[in-house]
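Hey Z.,

So I finally got round to the adenosine-5'-diphosphate thing we talked about over coffee. Here's the setup:
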Amino acid sequence: MLKIENLHARVEGKEILKGLSLTVNAGEVHAIMGPNGAGKSTLGNVLSGREGYEVTAGSVSYNGIDLLALEPEARAAAGVFLAFQYPVEIPGVNNTYFLRAAANAQRKARGEKELDSMQFLKLVREKLKVMQISDELLHRAVNEGFSGGEKKRNEIFQMAVLEPQLAILDETDSGLDIDALKQVAQGVNMLRSPDRAFLMITHYQRLLDYVVPDFVHVLADGRIVESGDKSLALKLEEHGYRGIGESQPAGA
Ligand code: ADP
Ligand code: MG
Ligand code: MG
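And the result:
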């Protein structure tokens, strides 16, 4: 589904990604871990097409197409979803309205019929029910005054409504108490499917107790320096990032 090869990217003239390669197949959950400033959020931002990120070398193929050639809206329409590390607040814009606009933009780009407010409300109620999220979030402005946990839960809810093929979660577990963490993890687990892939960027092993990844990668200084299965995350928890990438490749 996703093939990243030798990706180099700059932010404000500074090279952050320095030859990152990663392959993700449909149905897989990949955890990306790594020290602060390694380029994890930059990777998510480059994949979603956020402004200000300049790709200087390498390629990203998504379902066989050149992802980097698409505008951000076209990427979203093609099923790429990014949950931001710091979700934005949009005061005065109702959450349901915002989500319907996003869902309909996606449908329109795919040549599908847009949903009217009744149809959308029905879809939203179904998703809230399966995700076990209270409908109180619907009536508030987008993320305005939301607690950290509510913002993250709202992102998972957005993801459930938009049904992406490739979901990138950037530290969706940060700052969550254990109940909120479990709820986010449950949401991810419910959305796992053979035709959907996840890139879960996380600092901590804790989330991976609840969402068991197929692969764990360490991103350090703009590259994937080590890959393994979930035991790599446990090893990192124990030993930290020192020495990672200097050892033999995983499995060698
Ligand atoms: P991580 O998510 O792994 O902590 P980031 O991708 O956020 O790392 O950041 C990697 C590096 O790029 C850091 O040195 C950070 O300061 C820099 N950086 C990221 N985004 C910006 C930006 N918008 N402007 C300037 N520097 C940035
Ligand atoms: Mg960081
Ligand atoms: Mg980050």
